[in-house]
Amino acid sequence: MRPTSARFLNVLVPVKRCVDYAVKIRVNPDQKGIDLNVKHSMNPFDEIAVEEAVRLREKLKDAVKSIKVLTVGPPKAAETLRTALAMGADSGIHIELPETAPAPEPLSIAKLIKASIEKQSEPVDLVIMGKQAIDDDAGQTGQMLAGLLGWSQATFASKVEVDEANKLAHVTREIDGGLEEVKCKLPLVVTTDLRLNEPRYASLPNIMKAKKKPIEKFKPSDLGVDVTPILETIKISEPQKRVGGTKVGSVDELVAKLKAAGITAV
């Protein structure tokens, strides 16, 4: 049973190693995936999540006891953890996969995070994570994690305020009609939107300190989770190249070209 009188908060931030946002994506020759032999970096939405966790501690001072970052991926994903540690996290968890293993699906990732939370010696009060990853754009893991844990959730957050004494969080969400404010009980899963904050750059001293911060390593089997994909990618193809437009001299000419292209009024 979770202690209700504890004032300290333990924060977990899942992060993902993705193809860098500035890299032009190219499809593999077999059309079953993309070329991964390119520069990788932390998913930008996860950078925002790490920054928010660090800002939360700066604001609440000693109320935040620990900030842990977690990643699921091949050995190279440890670099992503080190980046998050250099930004201000205290320790990391690396659920390591073989280099050639297929990328786990969102449900598998949510199950791994849940199992990691349950394995911690102290209860996790708050999970802050990106609303989506820029490689698959699924945007599902946070919601699935909250459902598996039975926790409150606040997605697409543009502002987060935590009342640690009463174990509450006030979250401003971005929705189609504008903004929505929700009050959630901790423990809570929050997914971050772009306008939540501007991530900091890690300083050289913090990068050096990050090399000494502890990282726990697990395999999915250690957590009792089967990450075998249940979906099969049939084919991936690049979008058709855009064709240049043409100018017309009159409305009649425009209508004639539309008819020639097989476009008719509804």
Strand order of the largest sheet: 9-8-7-10-6-1-4-5-11
What structural class do you assign from the helix and strand content?
alpha/beta
Architecture (CATH level 2) name = 3-Layer(aba) Sandwich
What percent of residues are in strands?
Answer: 25-35%
Structure summary, number of beta strands: 11
Order of helices and strands: EEEHEHEHEHEEEEHEH
Q: How many separate domains?
A: 1
The third-level CATH topology is Rossmann fold
In CATH terms, the superfamily is HUPs
The backbone outline, from C-alpha atoms, is: globular
Helix percentage:
25-40%
Name the CATH class.
Answer: Alpha Beta
User: Quick one: biggest sheet?
Assistant: 9 strands, mixed
Tally of contiguous helical segments: 6
Give the end-to-end Cα distance, rounded to a whole number of Å.
62 Å
Radius of gyration: 22 Å
Mean pLDDT: 88
Structure description:
This protein is of the alpha/beta class and 266 residues long. It has one domain (9-239): 3-Layer(aba) Sandwich (Rossmann fold), CATH 3.40.50.620. The protein has 6 helices and 11 strands. It has a 9-stranded mixed beta sheet with strand order 9-8-7-10-6-1-4-5-11, sandwiched between helices. A two-stranded antiparallel sheet has the order 2-3. A hairpin with a 4-residue loop joins strand 7 and strand 8 (168-175). It is globular, with a radius of gyration of 22 Å.
